Amino acid sequence: MERNEVVIKAGKSALNYWREVWRQRELFWIIGKRDVMVRYKQTVLGVAWGVIRPLMTALVMVFAFGKIAKLDQDSSIPYMLVVIPGVIIWLFFSQSLSQISNSIVGNGNLVSKVYFPRIIIPFSSLLVGLLDAIIAFLIFFVFCIYYQFFPSWQILLAPIFLILAYLAAFGSGLFASVLNVKYRDIAQIIPFVVQFGYFISPVAYSSERVKNEWWYPIYNLNPVAGAIDGMRWCLLGDFAKFNWPSFISLLIFVIISVLFSIWFFRKNENSFVDHL
Amino acid sequence: MKAISIENISKKYILNHKKKKFQNLKESISGFLGELFTSKDEEEIKEVFWALQNVSFDIEQGDRIGIVGSNGAGKSTLLKILSRITEPTNGQVKVNGRMASLLEVGTGFHPDLTGRENIFLNGAILGMKQQEIKRQFDEIVSFAGIEKFLDTPVKRYSSGMYVRLGFAIAAHLEPEILIVDEVLAVGDSEFQKKCLGKMKDVSSSGRTILFVSHNSTAIQGLCNKAAFLQKGNLVKYGEVGEVLHDYMTSISKFQLQQNWETPDNAPGNDQVRIKNIEVIPEFVNGSKNIDVRTPMKINIEFWNMLESAHLNLSIFLYNMTGECVFNVGSQAKTFSKGLITGILEIPANFLNDGSYYISAMIVKDTADPIYFMEDAISFDVADWREGTNWYGKWPGAVRPINISVKTWKVDGLI
After folding, report:
1. How far is CA B38 from the centre of its chain?
2. What's the rounded Cα separation, in Å, for the pair B128 and B139?
3. pLDDT > 90 in chain A, percent
4. pLDDT, averaged across chain B
């Protein structure tokens, strides 16, 4: 039995905090696993939904952007392959963002009744989205076989962009989750952001289409654009260019938002219980 | 060795009182537009509320501490600080050893998950390692008595099953310090008995327990020390009997005596007037408040203003729900003008615990009530018991311990 004296007082040191997060790392898996298990309880199709959702999204996009808007005419590879990297990142990002921003309020019963470092809750929402992203990757490989497309070595870098997309969602979602405790307006705003965010990100088209527009530098500030461009480069190799401006803006966004949000979260986490 | 030392803990809350600003739709709209451009802080009144103020005490290892106090005394705030859910505004607490707090049973149960899945989830949330849960899994299931429903989602459990499962998990935590809040308020009496039994086991193995309850019988039976909080301040900390006595006295709104000096303002009529009515307990065994062991006398004095009246005194005892427990009367006698005293003796080990009211009636010619004084005095009988592990409410209007039940063996065959 570990014998350690715990001192409870206003304001704790950061070192102790992270040590405690590490000690309770099992909880990260448990809560993440719970979210995954709960997701498809009492559904007939179960985990099959994890396949249906990205597949339907991609099919609809291929139809709307490829066939109706006729963007597939100047694509040298099947349009489905252009769309899937965007769908992978977009679904992963939007899902993580909504989960994280609602994590503290949604687990209010835990926050007000037991102690553990609160940051474990938003962080554990990684697992749900990650599982879906892996399924979406498998779909991509199935289409690669179908179209006899062979991805190049860059595919090994794909996890990096998945992590960056997650961190972007974590940075903004964590900030929102703190605000959501006090101002439930956030719960109204997030679905809205997810809805229009889709239109300003290169989900169903390549960002190269808009690179000659005067607003292209502003467009690149969108962190999701950076993650999607990067993912497309990883999966399609020579058929997509690496977009440095959007990559750098993504990196800057991730660093600033994650650090700021963690600071903001730590500053407020002890008053959560008073507002829930 | 000190398990917990609490040093000058204070907790401040700031309450915002919002004035009702707008009376009608027009005012609401114009007020809302106005607010968009001005700061609205002026409309709010901030009030500082201290839920706890400079509370300090030490808890030795192996102590079983009961925390008592009326609603809003700061008990829950203290437990929340100790279990680290909220931070104190000032002061600090030093905790030595692994601590588990049980502020609610079934914390973090997910309704869609099965009993089995929830055992692992809840155990982890309460601080158990997965290995520990696996080791104790069978024991938890049989303690809760849910073997058949292990793979049913807990949303289909009855509320009793839900609570039993929650407590079973918590009971197998094996912490060195256990903090329990009012879990006994839920569940049926059989389950409460099981909980208290389990807590007794825990305490006899030398672990430290902090226990908040309104059930003073349970505190008396389980704890060796108690802390009495009132309006955020620690009023008394020490041996459980003394603290409970102070607590009971502070909450009792009971009136043991009513007394009038002269007949002019005394209650009554032109035939009789009450001078004095009181309960006189005879404390035994060093107790300081009335409990079920305490014999007492009801003393009634009244002025008789009638010449040669044939009077008797009738005394009614009511319990808290207004039922008459008994009504006894004196022999009718002929009295001349003057002061008359009557005494009723209530023996020890007769009344049950609870609140009682006394009414007195003076009857003329054994049939004609000339004055009835309702709810004249009241008193509270505290519980006391030994030789039992049962701490729930003892049933019955009275508890005549001297009427005994005898058992003996008549046959060796089964």
Report:
1. 49
2. 15
3. 25
4. 83
pLDDT of residue B252: 65
Closest CB to B94: pick one of A7, A37, A273: A7
The owner of tokens 């149960």 is: B109
Q: Decide if the complex's ipTM is over 0.95.
A: no
CB A34 to CB B110 under 8 A?
yes
pLDDT grade for A2, boundaries at 50, 70 and 90: very low
Give the model's pLDDT for residue B83: 83
Q: Tell me if B112 and A42 make a contact (CB, 8 A cut-off).
A: yes
Chain B residues within 8 A of A26 when measuring between CB atoms: 124, 129-130
Q: What are the pLDDT digits (tens) for A166-204?
A: 999 999 999 999 999 888 888 888 998 888 888 888 888
Question: B249 CB near a chain A CB, below 8 Å?
Answer: no
* Contact yes or no for A37 and B153 at CB 8 A: no
* CA closest to B9 among chain A residues: A9
Q: Tally the residues of chain A.
A: 276
A89-103 per-position pLDDT tens digit:
999 999 999 999 999
Contact A8 B84 (CB under 8 A): yes
B64-68/B208-212 β-pairing: parallel
Higher-confidence position of B256 and A170:
A170
* Ramachandran angles phi, psi of B316, nearest 5°: -110, 140
Quote the CA–CA distance of A185 and A192 in Å, as a whole number: 11
Q: Which of B7, B55, B84, B169 would you mutate first to test chain A, the one with the most A CBs within 10 A? A: B84
Q: How far is CA B245 from the centre of its chain?
A: 13
**Chain B residues closer than 8 Å to A107 by CB:** 108
Picking from A2, A8, A113, the nearest residue to B107 by CB comes out as A113
Amino acid in position A46: G
Q: What is the pTM of this model?
A: 0.70
Cβ–Cβ < 8 Å for B75, B212 = yes
pLDDT for the residue B302? 92
The predicted pLDDT at position B32 comes to 65
Q: Is pLDDT larger for residue B187 or for residue A173?
A: A173
Contact A147, A234 (CB under 8 A): no
**Do B115 and B154 contact (CB within 8 A), yes or no?**
yes
Question: First-to-last CA distance in chain A?
Answer: 34
Cα–Cα distance measured from residue B361 to residue B315, given in angstroms and rounded to the nearest whole number = 6
Q: Which residues does chain B have within 8 Å of residue A16's beta carbon, measured at their own beta carbons?
A: none
- Asked if B88 is an interface residue toward chain A (Cβ–Cβ < 8 A), one would say yes
CA distance B269 to B274: 9
Among B80, B99, B124, beta carbon nearest to A27: B124
The pair phi, psi for residue B165, each rounded to 5°, is: -65, -45
According to DSSP, the residues that pair with B228 across neighbouring strands are: B68, B236
Cβ neighbours of B292 (radius 10 Å)? 20
Closest residue in A to B100 (Cα) is: A114
Q: Helices A79-101 & A126-147, crossing angle to 10 degrees?
A: 170
Return the residue of A nearest to B90 by Cα. A10
What interhelical angle do A48-61 and A79-101 show, nearest 10? 120
Q: Of A107-116, A160-169, A264-273, B191-200, give the lowest mean pLDDT range.
A: B191-200
Q: Is the pLDDT of residue A1 over 60?
A: no
- Best residue of B82, B112, B128, B129 to probe chain A, by most A CBs closer than 10 Å: B112
Cβ(A129)–Cβ(B100) under 8 Å? no
Distance between CA A45 and CA A33 in Å, rounded?
19
Residues above pLDDT 90, as percent of chain B: 12
Task: Please state, in angstroms and rounded to a whole number, the distance separating the CA atoms of residues B305 and B336.
Answer: 8
- In chain A, positions 192-211, which contact chain B (CB-CB < 8 Å)? none
Q: How many CB atoms lie within 10 A of CB B56?
A: 13
